[in-house]
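Reopening: structure tokens for the s-citryldethia Coenzyme A complex, inputs below.
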Amino acid sequence: MSNSAEIKINGKTYELPVIEGSEGEVAIDIGKFRSQSGVITIDPGFKNTGSTKSAITFLDGEKGILRYRGYTIEELAEKSSFLEVSYLIIYGELPDQKTLEHFKNEISHHTLVHEDIKKILDGFPSAAHPMGVLSSLVTSLTAFYPESLDPNRSSDEVDLSIIRLLAKLPTFAAWAFKNEMGHPVMYPDNKLDYTANFLKMMFGLPVEDYEVDPVVAKALDQLLILHADHEQNCSTATVRVVGSSHASLYASISAGVCALWGPLHGGANQAVIEMLEQIQADGGDTAKWMAKAKDKNDPFRLMGFGHRVYKNFDPRAKIIKKAADDVLAKLGVNDPILDIAKGLEEEALRDPYFVERKLYPNVDFYSGIIYRALGIPTEMFTVMFALGRLPGWIAQWKEMRENGEPIGRPRQVYVGSNERNYVSMDNR
Ligand code: SDX
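Re-run output (same inputs, fresh job):
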């Protein structure tokens, strides 16, 4: 592989360095190209443009490979736990037993939030979307921990902010749900592990005991692992850009929550279920909806299908599809929209439009079906995605800060009016 590339423009040839990653990915470094040539490159949506070098997650979209710090998603989903994976992603290595226990204990003892945060929660109407509540409560941490605003704190202080965020996000998520239900919030129970504690805060009520179903807790833990990081996706790129201005971790994560909310990104899991329910209400005619998805004049898209990077099966979708079968069987749930989803997938995988464009089910296509079976309401699905993605966002923010990366500030090509003189009102 050559270690340089040439660009010929305006009669001159410019030699640019080429870098190669540990998995053989190759990039042309254009960092000095404008200063040498006066010319920039342009790539709306950054479809072919790398923003950084990262050691956290590797994915190969053509081969359907996803690894966190070198470990395959398949092994981690089968053998690990969400907090162990969170430690791995954030600190780079699998923790030994002592380290993991300390990490878990630290998180357990920071799950409670300041009582005044309930006043912020109470200000939201029950119709508020939980993602808007979640991003607001995350931002509120800057008010209760003002020392977290200092971008140059010690690593111990950053670690404490990380623990607080991992510990409090499930509390915020469950409280956002309670606010929507008009129910009293449930406080954390430090005797329970991460997912069981979240489920009890979500579904428990002060007036009755709540027993966590181990099948549900295990399925949720696996779903969180599958969402934990995904290199430079829209919300992670947002976290890195916001953090590059030396905004605090809490401010950067709050921005990531908002970016994830969009239906083309993390909001797709909610949109998938709404789409499947629409198809079901319409009589289950999947062929009609497939035709709509292919019709350029119809804004309808097959939600949960397609991906910017995966041009093969999203490996997470494969695991989640199997988990959906297992969880629904174990819980004795028979959800007709799972059959509609499978029917759509079978049709899409043999339809030339989808095959030519390499559109496969992504992580969001089946996840909502499991969340439904676990009793999680549709508008909470993207909140579940945020809970899973949190360690990834944290790790990416931490890597960007530790590498001293510059503030993110893209260039542009101006296509507006050339210079012109002001026109007085009388002459317009
Ligand atoms: C996530 O980046 C990540 O890693 C994200 C994520 C993560 O873990 O962080 O994996 C999570 O966001 C998964 C994606 C969830 N979104 C959806 O399921 C929404 C539906 N999917 C699409 O909107 C779309 O596939 C995107 C947004 C996911 C990707 O869009 P791209 O890469 O910009 O591709 P594109 O829109 O240019 O589509 C290429 C072609 C177009 O047709 P042509 O112009 O070539 O004729 O494929 C078509 C599109 O119209 N197409 C679809 C389609 N997705 C793409 N047509 C119908 N239904 C779809 N779902």
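The radius of gyration is 23 Å. Residues 82-223+251-259+384-391 form a domain with the Citrate Synthase; domain 1 fold (CATH 1.10.580.10). Marking as resolved unless the reporter disagrees.
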